[in-house]
Request: fold
Amino acid sequence: KREEVLSRIDRGAAIFNQRAYALAFCPSGEGQKPAPLVTVDCENVELSCFKQSERSERVYILRLFEGQGIATTAKVEIPVASAAFEAEFNPFEIKTFRLEDGKVTETDMLEGAVELPQ
Reply:
């Protein structure tokens, strides 16, 4: 029980600290349920950002982080782009990925805006 609570504590904290909001949309529940945009198979790895790149309309940015202090390998699937990949995370590591034409590549936190020295 304790391990289960601790494995979800960062998500609970994020939910608790978000402002409450109301939705004015009440779907009937009929019809076809859409596929998820992104799935991550590890409870300790969270998708914190999925956005269109500021430099190209054809590129999307995903940012994931490991929030429990556990080194892990996560499988990430993006069904709408028919893309999937695995990423290894060190404890508390943040990684940024580019999705372009169904291909996912790792990039830096600046999304390749400037060339950094090696």
Q: What stands out?
A: The mean pLDDT is 86. The beta strands are 39-40, 45-52, 59-66, 72-78, 83-89, 94-100, 103-107. The longest helix spans residues 9-16.
